UniProtKB/TrEMBL annotation:
Matches recorded under InterPro entries: RNase_H-like, RNaseH-like_sf, RNaseH_domain, RNaseH_sf
Name of this protein: RNase H type-1 domain-containing protein
Pfam name, any one: RVT_3
Organism whose genome encodes this protein: Gossypium arboreum (Tree cotton)
Lineage: superkingdom: Eukaryota
Domain RNase H type-1 residues, every copy: 3-88
């Protein structure tokens, strides 16, 4: 049950993001997710059988915008985004940096030293 709830929560979050971006009128959007299953499931139009209304709605939004895509990014290479998200949630102040924080430099150093590649899966 917890797995389905997490799956649904991530899909609802994605739909909210898409609707917000659509409302703000963006032409080009690349959404990155570290959930490979969600990315494959949403981008695979050949899947037959029942799909949730939520997934169909996400697919409709992505299909209606030519330059919008959903990409998979491995969790290991997504560490900086996670750290920035946590920082943003823990403060009400906008942070601007002239240089990357030491923690981010270490993450970047590790990411570039290993052979992590980003798999693009676009609609």
């Amino acid at each position: 049950m917890a797995k389905k709830s997490r799956f649904d929560a991530e899909l609802w979050g994605l739909l909210d993001e898409l609707l917000l971006l659509q409302k703000q009128g963006y032409d080009k959007v690349i959404i990155q997710s570290d959930n490979l299953g969600n990315v494959i499931f949403i981008n695979d139009n050949s899947l037959v059988g029942p799909k949730s209304t939520l997934i169909r709605r996400i697919q409709q939004i992505l299909a209606s915008k030519r330059q919008w895509s959903l990409r998979y990014i491995p969790r290991e290479t997504n560490q900086i985004v996670d750290a920035l998200s946590k920082m943003a949630l823990s403060s009400e102040v906008l942070h601007m940096f002239e240089e990357p924080l030491i923690e981010f430099k270490e993450i970047l150093k590790e990411a570039f030293s290993s052979d992590n590649s980003i798999m693009n899966i676009s609609m």
